[in-house]
């Protein structure tokens, strides 16, 4: 499943694509919300690994506006719960992820992104 926790770490790896290759832009998505047991300690520990701006922009593109523009220095439990929802419960089942830099489209089918590249697209 493409969850936003995973999406926040994906970039385009097409040969010579090194500008505007993160974050990949979702389009034509089928979004499913699946409740997941909260683990706020995990969310708290994962915070330093997030690109906050990319996460907020992506969440908003999918219709979730619960995250603030700027990452709070100290997050409340309610803010951590909102972050848990965005990272762990929002699943993109179908659709596409497109690179803004080169336009390469990574299709998502049955919740699985196809990140494989053709031989001529592979960076060296």
TrEMBL record:
It holds the Pfam family Trm112p. GO terms for molecular function: protein heterodimerization activity. SUPFAM superfamilies: Trm112p-like. GO terms for biological process: rRNA (guanine-N7)-methylation; tRNA methylation. Gene3D superfamilies: 2.20.25.10. Belongs to the TRM112 family. Interacts with TRM9. This is Trm112p-domain-containing protein.
